[in-house]
Amino acid sequence: xxxxxxxxxxxxxxxxxxxxxxxxxxxxxxxxxxxxxxxxxxxxxxxxxxxxxxxxxxxxxxxxxxxxxxxxxxxxxxxxxxxxxxxxxxxxxxxxxxxxxxxxxxxxxxxxxxxxxxxxxxxxxxxxxxxxxxxxxxxxxxxxxxxxxxxxxxxxxxxxxxxxxxxxxxxxxxxxxxxxxxxxxxxxxxxxxxxxxxxxxxxxxxxxxxxxxxxxxxxxxxxxxxxxxxxxxxxxxxxxxxxxxxxxxxxxxxxxxxxxxxxxxxxxxxxxxxxxxxxxxxxxxxxxxxxxxxxxxxxxxxxxxxxxxxxxxxxxxxxxxxxxxxxxxxxxxxxxxxxxxxxxxxxxxxxxxxxxxxxxxxxxxxxxxxxx
Length: 372
Prior knowledge:
InterPro entries: DHHW (IPR025945). This is DHHW family protein. The strands form 4 sheets. The chain has an 8-stranded mixed sheet with strand order 7-6-15-13-14-12-10-11, sandwiched between helices. The chain has helices spanning 2-18, 40-45, 47-58, 63-76, 104-117, 132-135, 149-160, 170-175, 191-205, 227-232, 315-318, 337-344, 355-360, 366-369, and strands spanning 24-25, 30-31, 81-82, 85-87, 93-95, 123-129, 165-166, 215-224, 240-247, 254-257, 262-264, 289-293, 301-307, 322-328, 348-354. The protein is globular and about 70 Å long. The longest helix has 17 residues, at 2-18. It folds into 2 domains: 1-61, no CATH class; 99-370, no CATH class. It is of the alpha/beta class.
């Protein structure tokens, strides 16, 4: 064994030279670090060495094998957490909730309040979805902390109480917690989970939701390994299923990806079902600005959705209620949102994030930056 290990170590330099660099890891579902540019400035600042260490880690020969071997070894030794992901019961991978830093609640709330104050007449709804760790606490390994998502949901509700209607979907999801509401290997809710959240949103907005019987439910994929599978390195798990809920009465929407200058007549990018990130079947993933037009409701109201990827599987349920839906992802959008609201005569705004991303990603603060 020692001889084999020594031989591998001796062969490493040759393997590194002969093995071509990869841009993307399908197993981890992320871009890999490219070889850094060498310059005197980067050498002096230490940036080159820092980036080179990342490059060597990402481009290490047979990296995918070693990542899997590491998690298998940890699992055999009884380790139930890796990369911020718990290996739970019944094949569930559950993302750990990281509480926001001190002051983060008030900063995010102030960004939303500032924007709302600059858009008088706009009816604003805020939905911060709990993640799997809150609804599947019984699936956590022994002694794993469930976190405090609900406490921070309450803090945000109180901070926004005079400015927006807070759409609390936790009770509706809790009532259905034994159903397939969250993917087992991905951090998103399933289409069923999104449907129950949609029903609660309709109740808050005074709309009549469509019943489950109004849809044809198509099992579009049964081999989905999601973000938590990639992030954790845990293997030997059963894949998830992705279902598309297709209205029995066709609505013939037009979907325009504005920055890409592309238009389609489907809310679903079916080609993504053959790729690693199958969740991108919904609205073709994340984009700066997407405009959805429903000709069946030409005189209907107009909705702006400011969101993370949790919204992607819920938005298709809303097309039967609005003539136009504008979908904005602040991580990529650099336009004038107030001007968009005025020019398009938008009536309602929905802020929809999962609670983890809402605090982990700073882009929600861009709302207040747009006012300056």
